[in-house]
Amino acid sequence: MVTKLNTFTVFNSLLMILFAFLSAYPMWYILVLSFNEGADAAMGGIYWWPRSFTIGNYIVILQNEIILNAFKISVLRTAIGTIGSLLVTSMVAYALSRKELPGRRQLTIVFLFIMLFNGGLIPFYIQLIRLDLINSFWVFVIPNLFSVWNMLVMKTSFQNNIPENVIESVKIDGAGYARIYFAIILPFSMPLLAALGLFTAVFHWNDWFTGAFFVNDLQLQPLPTYLQRVMSTVEASNMISAGQMSAARDAGMYNPAAVTTKSVRMATIMLTTLPILLVYPFLQRYFVKGVLIGSVKE
């Protein structure tokens, strides 16, 4: 029995290590290419570490005002969109969690219906036009302020994990619903808000669709939209070689002959991916507890 258990443990560990390697290696390969001279990388044979190290690819990116502006748009929409979504969604969840709210079951059914069924892309686009959100920064924020799924998780958490006697005692002291929300609900729900906030932030950071279809102004497009254009169109690739490289070449900060379009694209991918990855370690301790807190009743 012990031998069989040890054999299974070893096999399972090796299998998990293989899966971890297959998941992590593509990112490591892109990182290596982003720090390698593009002309040298074009010859192939680079797998584990840079053969001809350079930071020229990142200098090219940082000299480009379009990328820096796209990075700023991504940071702003992620910060404002995440905070706004957590506030609006948690307020709705708190209201629906109170038994004294008339018609809360009917409202929950309506929210479930609109989560499963929607009007489609064309009616949504027409609605954005009527709200004057096309070619506006707020098209990234306002349509995503409310999430039905997050609301259901929060509602369950508020009902099952916040003691009702605490709320009643605060009511006796004269507190209204607003004070209860800010003084009791939010502090008790920080692990849950941290986990859902991470999911929301990842969505905002990775969303390229909104910028590609609802924003025509290049000054308002986020970084993922710019990256999608760079990776999918020949025009964008030419724009990299002509636009991004010219400023750094004039400054003489790297060897222009060693930088290629592909090496700059690799650096752009890393610039797009790393910021959101750096957020995970700070929220890791809240993650598991926050995900489970709304699904288990104590």
From TrEMBL:
It is a multi-pass membrane protein. It comes from the Bacteria. One of its GO terms (biological process) is transmembrane transport. One of its GO terms (cellular component) is plasma membrane. InterPro entries: MetI-like, MetI-like_sf. It is found in: Cell membrane. SUPFAM superfamilies: MetI-like (SSF161098). Residues 71-283 form the ABC transmembrane type-1 domain. Keywords: Cell membrane, Membrane, Transmembrane, Transmembrane helix, Transport. The chain crosses the membrane at residues 7-28, 75-96, 108-127, 133-153, 180-205, 263-283. This is Putative aldouronate transport system permease protein.
